[in-house]
Every structure is written in structure tokens, then in C-alpha cells.
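Crash report, auto-generated. Payload:
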Amino acid sequence: MTAAAPARARPVRPARSLFVPLAVVGFMVVSWWSLSSEFGIGFDLGELIENITRGARILYRDNPINPADRGLLNPNWAFLASTVEPMIETFQMAVIAAVVGCGLALPISFVASRVTAPGRATLFGVRGVLSVVRAIPDILYALVFVAAVGIGPLPGILALVLFNIGVVAKLMSETIDGVDPGPIEAAQASGANRTQTVRWSVLPQVLPHYVAYSLYTFELNIRASTVLGIVGAGGIGRILYREYARFNWSNVSVIIVELFVFVFVIEVVSIWLRRRLV
Amino acid sequence: MTAAATPISTSRPARPSRLLRNAAVAAVVVVIAWAVLSIGIPVDELSGLPSGVWGVVQRMFFRPGPDLSYLATSLEFMFQSIQIAWVGTIIGAIFSLPIGFFGAKNVSSGLVSNVIRQVLNGVRAFPELVLAVAIFIPIAGLGPVAGALAIGIHSIGTLGKLTAEVVEGIDPGPLEAARATGARSLQVMRWGVLPQVLPEIVAFWLYRFEINIRAAAVLGVVGAGGIGFLLQNTVQYTRFDKAGMAIIVVVVATIAVDSASGWLRRRIIEGSEKKAVAVEVFEAPEARKGDTSFG
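Recovered output after restart:
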């Protein structure tokens, strides 16, 4: 627009902006508010160090509450066998939720993109709903679904499905926003209707991204489904929270090591799959 | 290069092998089928699902609907969640900055950066809730400080990786220039690297803060402070009217923080409106066409 303005030999130095000093003051105020013991969480470094030195003792020496326990640093490997089943359940929940969630997210993302939405009202309506869906954490979904349908893997899967719709629909609608408009024009010029344009011009461009996002969501699910059990939604989180509540740190430590290996393996496999499929 | 040397062939090139790709697709299908068939969700549970969920949603938002007298309590606990997220983000930012520099191959050594990257991968493998339950509540006791520490450690994992990637993507020119004037390695970092990466890294901090708000909203479920405590309690005692109020507060506060932080991020990355116009005068208009960001 303004490109026609005459170019000067040297650009004028921009006026110093108040933005940086204001941002620094804002940062200080919010930090003081958050850290203070009066209004905030009461973050006291001295107290924390004292707590850590006391707390750390409990983790590797005698546990005063549970004498049978040997601490986080002495994992009780005999416990491993009883964690296999909930671990498999966690994996199954992640798989099913990724399939259902990503499947539902694909059509939604076409309605939530500027390029393919049927109208402005639909576009902003769907985007608004999606931002609400994303604003609710997965654990909160799980809490509500456990209250509605009872304890088990089903509420966990439902919670992950909603979480996945939020993530994939956002990523995909942004990808669709950025497609090359050439093929769309070509399809329209040859007389294609809206559905045909989406099918033949947009979908082939975004499908590789969709596969990549779906695998990424699956990885997120593995991590998320490890904690859903804490509120009763099935999987390894249930066992983790039970052992935590019984102060069995040796068993908790087994689960932590297991989770670490599990997440690592899933990531490696997922990266391999992404390379093969995309 | 070699195309000119080979004789012209009239046959079509052989189709590349799709064996591995097909094997990958088959493996995925098998895993999905196995998961669906063996998870063991009874059918009657599925049939009761819509009415069960609708019953709870109705009690939360329609009849009796959100309990307005619970607004003040919900806000108080939501503010604590925001504070937990803020402190956690600060912990993550302070530690991830130097760690990220050591994790970048171009300004650190190969061995050090590899070790740091692996440690960061390990840290990221644990969700905040697991860190809170397994490590920080036992150490720091129940309460918001444990939550802030759990979020802080997880943030070091994610921010450290992002910082290292940003540092690896810098223009090496200013580094060389700083070295040529005799700067020590710390001075090279300060004057050659930091000015190039700081805007992007600060934007990542803000983005992480947005994610941490969501994590901090649920940490209370395990007793690590914030509004998660209210959500857990009200749902457990089937006070869905109160739970509805708390959920509305979580959603509104999360979206509000997202918008504020998103505005700040765009302001940091793109500069002020005035500057953007000034840039346009001196740059080709096409240079700014790729901007497709939306609110």
C-alpha cells in the first residue's frame, strides 16, 4: 500500500517505545503478586531448601509412615508384573482416542478454516467452540466423564478424544489456511463444486500434515493417559496414584522408570512411522 | 549429473518400492484393531453414555446451573493456578536459557549438546502431574509450591529444547564479528547470540505460560494447589452446580490469559504497528504476504 512512498537515503530512527519498560514493570508486579506469601503461593527459597533436605531423606532412607518401603531410589522390581496390565490399558486408550479424535477432527478442521468454511458465521462459531474445547484440560474432562459414566477406561478415552479434537482441528485448520490457492482455482475453473474442490484440491495438499499431526497427537495421548487414572479414568495413573497414596515409594519408582521407557519407545516408533507414512 | 552420460531410455522408470510403507500401514491397522477389540468396555456402558453425560452437563450449566455464590471462591483458586503457572514458567525460563545454550551444537561442543538434549528428552517424558505426585509433593509437601516446582521442571525440558533449536538457527555472522573483535566466549554469547534469539525465546516463554495455565488448573487434583482442588471436590461430592461455576471460571480465565499472552507474543515478534508500517516502506510488499496468523 505504502510502497509508493519515496525512499529516503537513511531510515529515520524509530522513537523509543514505552513497551519494554512497561513490560518489565508488569513482569515484576505479576511476579511479586505470585511469589508473595500474602497474595500468592508463598514461594520461600529458604523454606524450600529446608523442605527438600528433609523430604529427600524420606526418599532414600527409612519411611516413617510406611516401614516396608525402601524409598524412591530403591525400586521394587517385583512390582513390575502387576503394572503390565494397566500399562497396556493406557496404550489402548491412547490408540482408540487418537483414531476417534483425529477422525472427528478432520471434517471439523475444514469447517474451521478460512479457505474451506461454508460461511463466516460457521467459521467463527466453530472456532469459538474449539477454543473452549481447548481451554478445558484433559483431566477435567476425565473428572466429568467419570462422574457421568463411572470408573474405567471409557471416561479416559472420551476425555482424550475431546483433547485430540481440540489439538488436531486447530493445527489442521491453520494448515488448510496456508494451502496453495492454485489447485483450488483450477478445480473451480473446471466447474467443481465445494465438496469436489475440497476433495481434489485441498485434501491432497494437507493429508501428509494430517498423518503427521495424528501421530503427534498419539504421542501426546500416551503422556496424557498416564495421568488420567489419577481421577479414575483407567490406565497406569490409577496404580501410580494408589501406590502414592500408600507411600510405597519403591513401587512408585518402578512405575516412573517404566513410564520413561514406554514414552521413549513410543516416540522412537512414532518417528519411524512418520518417516514411512509422510 | 549422470543423466547426460546414460543412453536415452524409452522405458518408464521403475516404481519405487512401497513395501515398507505398506508394512507400516498394516502395522498401524493391526494395532488399532487389537486395541478396540481387547480394551473390554461393556456395551451397556456405551449405550448409557449419552444420557449419563447429558445428565451431568445439564446439572452443571442448565438445571440448577452454575452456583453464582461460588464465583468468589472459584476466582480465588483460579488466581492461585495462574500464580503457580507464572512461577513455574519463571523457573523454566531461568534454567532453560543457559541449558539451551549448552544444548545448541553451534555454540557448545558436540558431546555436551548431545548429553543435554538427551537429559531434556528424559525430563519431558514426565507429565507435570506425575512429577508432582512422585517427586515434589513428597519433597516440598502438599500445596502450590510443589505444583510450581513440577511445572517448572517440566518447562525446563520443553523450553530448553526450543531454546537450543532457536540458537542453532542463528546467523553466524554476528558471532564471527564478535570473535574477530576479540570477545571472550561469554561476550560472544551476550553480544553475538542473545540479541538474535531473545525475542523468539521470550515468545516461547509466554507460549509456555499459556500451556502451564492448563496444567496448573488440574494440579490441585493431587493436592498441588490451584482450582483443580475445587474441581475434584465438587465433582466427587456431586455438587455439579458448584463444579459448573468452577469450570466456567477455568475456561474464561484460560481464554483471557491466552488472548493477552498471544497479543504480547505478536507484539514481541512483529513489533509495534508504527514500526511495521515503517518496515513496509523499505521492503518489497511481497515480503509481508506470508503472514496468515489469526487471533
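Post-recovery validation: Chain A has ten helices and no strands.
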